[in-house]
Predict the structure of PB1 domain-containing protein.
Amino acid sequence: MESKPKNIKLLCSYGGKILPRSTDGELRYVGGHTRVLAVDRSISFSELMEKLREFCGSSVKLRCQLPKGDLETLISITNDEDLAQITDEYDRASLKLTYPLKIRAVLSPPKSLLKVSPDLSSSSSSASRSPYRSPYTSSESPPYAAAYRFGRSPRAPVNNWRNETRCRKLWELRRGQNV
């Protein structure tokens, strides 16, 4: 790809969880919503955050995956410089391709919203939930209500030990054993 396109596209995931895949432990995004948002390349960080707020229905924290990275190392985007750097990373990764890569963005609620979110355990039966199914995508919960989308989302594991422990616990839960 020789010239930069006028727009950049973000593949935005929100309202779900980052969980290890049961087969190999690789992190993936489960549940919630994933949408593509196209914005002008010259957009400022504050304008992008306003678009994302309209897009999701509430304020969000923006974290992006590096082009060849995984979900364990998400980069927080907090200003214009961070936004320019992640855009440049994706531009460099797209150089030899015939199409530009979409910037993989994971949107989560700011810490202030997490503190005031209601406990969702009473909103649906715990029997319908499993460690692999998000409670935020059940037919009983409104899919676009911010409190339901951003209830109690776990953070990605910080290191391999935590990832392996989480995988082992999920595997044992899946097999019906006590942890």
